[in-house]
Amino acid sequence: MSTHKHVDMICLALCLGIILVVSGLLIWQYPQARTEPAGEEPDYAQGLFSTDSVHTIDIAMEDWDAFLETCENEEYTMCTVTIDGEQVENIAIRAKGNTSLSSVKTYGNDRYSFKLEFDHYQEGGNFQGLDKLSLNNCIQDNTYMKDYLTYQLMNDFGMASPLCSYAWITVNGEDWGLYLAVEGVEESFLDRNYGSVQGELYKPDSMDMGGGRGFGGDFQMPEEFSFEDMEGMEGPENFDPSTMEMPEGMEPPAGGQMSQRGEMPNMGGFGGMGSDDVKLVYTDDSFDSYANIFNNPKTGITDADKTRLIQSLKTLNEGTDIESVVDVEGVIRYFVVHNFVCNGDSYTGSMVHNYYLYEEDGVLSMIPWDYNLAFGGFRSGGDATSLVNTSIDEPVSGGTVEDRPMLAWIFRHEEYTARYHQYVADFLTYFTSGEFEAEFDRVAEMIAPYVEKDPTKFCTYEEFRTGVDTLREFCLLRAESIQGQLAGSTEQVDASHLTLSDMGSMGMGGGMGGPGGEMPDFEGEMPTPSTGGNGSPPNGRGGGGMPQAPPEVWSGGPPSFG
């Protein structure tokens, strides 16, 4: 009897061992399987951020007009909000954004993005466990879907990424517009993704163009700068900025002409190439060398935290013991999705911002943020074929891969490059299986009626429909191009029939100055804000852009991804 017991125990141990080995192989073979957050799933994950319907948020405030007049100051005001019928009082609200905040007036509009803080006036205040909520106005995004699509792709591919859903906003019971509700990357986000044991969170940023909360420390401009460096923008010859009416918060350079190849003023990153610290370049051990990181913490930090982060950056830049200072799995996943969506307004772009840096026990992670200018929106024009075929191994604009240490390590080591390529291949199955198109169309049909009746939208309904069709086609062509890249093909996928600015872009309506997205030939002043983006008359609250003929067939919009 005893012998049988021993035999049974040995067999059981062998079976368990086999199961563990097979499980490990499956995890490696199918890396696209979602990594569950370390924390307990809060109620808001399946409540406010469920993606099967458009939610409702009413903002109640005594003097809304007075609040709008002070929005660019980003001052908090108390309000009451009712979310999906549930009322929450004593909530703090302020406008949010950087260049997008100061750009709202350019549209002759007051459709600001907002931040709601449930714990601002009362400690521990929350809604379904959520402490901070962003309401994004979808500015410069005719599709309403770039942020949404990217966050869902990030989440479904196992990234620690903000949750989001669509919300119909009313103010004191009156329609205001369709917004994207986004989970704030703060305490609740950290609890959901990292549990009770957490590290430090930063939002590195050296951009300060007015109307935002950047710190703008020591931007490093190239010795010779041309407008061609600015992601497809073209500048006029003999452009004199001293005669140009600058956006509020930006100062023209002192005197003198600035030729097309001339020297640009330090405008906190506009057209610049980001400071070394936000690129995550190791300079030295001085705290001051990383001001644009340490001046932007989202958690309380100490000198010990700063020292630890600097040492991690040093090891990262040396490229020797990567696994000791980088969340290899998470960062590779981040760049798989990030490089797919072609976002020039990011860590891999010329401004080098719009990401969160998470550090725990010296290990660094990237958290995605702000993709309304993805899919070519930052270019304000340009060739769609070129963008669709952007190299997944050389995705940096306004610099090189070696100029971005958090990306460079992937391509310095063959084993990491191979893993990156494998993850890219796994990611593409979402697009090649037909799942993307089905989900994309479902969500487009869901939000279309809300876009049509949106009284404050920045584009016309026809522009929205055209933009959504373009985004859908762009994603499918991008997947096709990347498949070819993985197979070693040098043949480009033709996307010449697509117009990038149809999806929205920097500037007004279809792009700064016109549907083609080229920079206008300034003659003393910026285009008059009271006109629509492409010369159309204002509709009172937005609608900038020359209406385009609706397509014969509207194929839909992006996915809800669950």
Structure report:
It is globular and about 60 Å long. The protein has helices spanning 2-29, 43-46, 64-69, 99-103, 146-156, 187-194, 276-279, 291-294, 303-318, 328-341, 384-388, 405-412, 414-432, 435-453, 461-486; strands at 55-60, 77-83, 86-96, 113-117, 132-136, 164-171, 174-183, 200-202, 355-360, 363-368. It contains 15 helices and ten strands. The N and C termini lie far apart (53 Å). α12 (405-412) packs across α13 (414-432) and α13 crosses α15 (461-486). Among the domains are: 43-198, no CATH class; 202-209 and 273-426, no CATH class. The strands form two sheets. Strands 1-2-3-4-5-7-6 form a seven-stranded mixed β-barrel. The protein has a three-stranded antiparallel beta sheet with strand order 8-9-10. The longest helix has 28 residues, at 2-29. The protein has 562 residues and is of the alpha+beta class. Mean pLDDT is 79; it is low at 18-35, 209-272 and 508-562. The relative contact order is 0.13.
